[in-house]
């Protein structure tokens, strides 16, 4: 078990996967933050656009 752990810590593949995971997490936080800040404005815009569309007959 100890040998496998040391081998894992020495390999670069694990580090790369962790880096990609951190980048994906930061991107997700940025997207969620942007949606949170702009959510009300987008809802108002979509409601306005929906009001302009003709209703089905």
Automatic annotation (TrEMBL):
InterPro entries membership: Flp_Fap
Cited Pfam families: Flp_Fap (PF04964)
Origin: domain of life: Bacteria
Record's protein name: Flp/Fap pilin component family protein
Keywords: Membrane, Transmembrane, Transmembrane helix
Source organism per UniProt: Collimonas pratensis
Transmembrane portions of the chain: 20-39
């Amino acid at each position: 078990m100890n040998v496998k752990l040391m081998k894992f810590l020495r390999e670069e593949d694990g580090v790369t996967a962790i880096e990609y995971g951190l980048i994906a997490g930061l991107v997700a936080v940025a997207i969620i933050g942007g949606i949170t800040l702009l959510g009300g404005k987008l809802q108002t815009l979509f409601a306005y656009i929906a009001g302009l569309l003709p209703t089905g007959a």
